[in-house]
Design a protein that fits this description.
It comes from Cryptosporangium japonicum. It contains 10 helices and no strands. It is mostly helical. The longest helix is centred in the C-terminal third of the chain and has 27 residues.
Length: 206
């Protein structure tokens, strides 16, 4: 789960001649498949159907484009996380998040795995800034989940004394591990088998 960012940068001097959101969606897929370090500007402009001046004018440099792509990914591909947080009980929040996450990781129309994991796995010439950015984005999602689970404890649908922060981290470790395995070819049924086991550890009121 990540924080969504909206920007309104526009080309100077003339209107755009391309669909900015559609081009950004194509950039998301390139970064997702190849990671930040493995993606060149040529890869991006070819996939987006624009030239470099148009890319720079609309999105900024490669780093800025990547951040826009991650925000777009959070808004579109991880919308299920916001739905999960709205579930009425802590257990339902966790189950919905993990099940929907497994579905998202194994969609046939998207790359396997998760952009927020795969985008920064390789260390390169950016001094780790991309990996740090993605880690901070994931931590923001973990904190949002922890806050929701704290409310569940306060509401009494999770047992008193439950470590909401620890439980949120556990859930994120399961989802991130599933992302790595999905990218390696584990299918949806395999991920859900892991979730079945993981849910047994979620505390519930007797």
């Amino acid at each position: 789960m990540m924080i969504c960012v909206t920007t309104t940068t526009r080309e100077r001097g003339r209107p755009r001649s391309f669909d900015a959101d559609a081009a950004l969606d194509r950039a998301v897929e390139v970064f997702w498949r190849q990671g930040y370090e493995g993606t060149s500007l040529t890869d991006l402009t070819a996939a987006m159907g624009i030239n470099r001046p148009s890319m720079y004018a609309a999105y900024g440099n490669k780093d800025e484009l990547f951040r826009r792509a991650v925000a777009r990914y959070a808004e579109i591909d991880m919308a299920y996380a916001r739905d999960a947080l709205a579930r009425p009980t802590g257990y339902e929040v966790i189950e919905r998040f993990l099940r929907a996450n497994a579905d998202a990781l194994t969609r046939t129309d998207r790359p396997a795995g998760c952009l927020s994991i795969q985008g920064g796995l390789a260390a390169g010439s950016d001094d780790g800034h991309v990996a740090q950015f993605l880690a901070a984005s994931r931590l923001a999602g973990e904190n949002a989940l922890a806050e929701r689970l704290e409310r569940a404890v306060a509401d009494g649908d999770l047992p008193a004394g439950t470590d909401a922060a620890g439980l949120a981290r556990y859930v994120m470790v399961v989802s991130e591990g599933n992302a790595v395995h999905a990218a390696a070819g584990v299918d949806r049924a395999g991920l859900n088998a892991v979730i079945d086991i993981a849910l047994r550890a979620v505390p519930r009121q007797s």
